[in-house]
Please model this.
Amino acid sequence: MAPMCQYSAVDGVMNDWHRNHLGARAMGGAALIICEATAVSPDGRISPGCTGLWNEAQMQAVAPINAFIEGLGAVPAIQIGHAGRKGSAHVPWNGGAHIPDDDPLGWPTVGPSSEPFDADGTRLWKAPNEMSIADIEVMKEKFVAAAKRALDAGYKILELHAAHGYLQHSFLTPLVNTRSDAYGGDLHSRARFLLETAEAIREVWPENLPLATRISIHDWIEGGNGIEENIQIAKWLKDVGVDMIDCSGGGATPKARASIGERTSDQVGLAGELRAATGITTMAVGYITEAEQANNLIKSGTCDITLLGRQLLREPYWPIRAAQILGEDPKPHMPIQYHVVAS
Ligand SMILES: Cc1cc2nc3c(=O)[nH]c(=O)nc-3n(C[C@H](O)[C@H](O)[C@H](O)COP(=O)(O)O)c2cc1C
Model:
């Protein structure tokens, strides 16, 4: 299961919603469940309802959920990130607009540069505070602290969110990062924050547990990063100890393709290009909805892991059905309590 925000936490703490939402997909046979974008600090949330791992209460709330889904045979994984200039937004069903600083629900945002995400004049677009070098150092420590809590919470794979125009991606892409110090300029300088963060996390994330990074494999807009840049970023990530690349796309600016837009499936082919060029374990995502389709992506060597997002919202039992379609015994993918219906 691909990471999917639920906007349903209180003070970043997961609750019954998350237990049932994640548990249902584990019961449905998902092998790997990547929990939603989880903020490393309060201002790293997209919305006030986003989950966090900046304190012990958040860690303690999710630990039993992880134990539950692991008991059902799924691998619990977490995506940690920071929303950057896209943070401080209302939850989608309340419109998703930025929340002003003087509203108790809102907070000041940060980014590599001070341009707001949009400036169309129809609603508030918050201008982020440009991060100083000292701010970057502190932010890396927050990522490391969240990684340690993720380990304590029982997650078995840690994914660093560096896609969709959030903080890490906004440093990577020249569409947002206009800095002239060591963290801006050429590709390597723009990647410095991500590479240093990944390297620092690798020091605390055990060698026997995979470390993944989700990238926007294409910015899908003139002047942004494309597949070549992202292959290079993946090679550098591999050098600092990242084991897997999760290939999503878009989201850097309002004019770029959205990460769940109509042509998201284009990024699946690019995942194959990245895998061929880097040899790194690769996850593909984007409109994967059918059993044969997912199976063929693995068989053809396009990717090592297929991630499903919306299809698993529609159909939590998709993996069991997929096993049946592919002629596999569905029982190993089902809770033992349900085996009675499998014969
Ligand atoms: C409700 C919803 C929430 C999402 N939240 C996240 C998220 O927290 N982190 C992330 O990287 N992508 C997020 N995405 C993107 C998905 O992980 C996935 O890349 C995208 O939906 C495309 O896959 P699909 O076509 O199988 O849905 C979200 C998508 C949806 C539909």
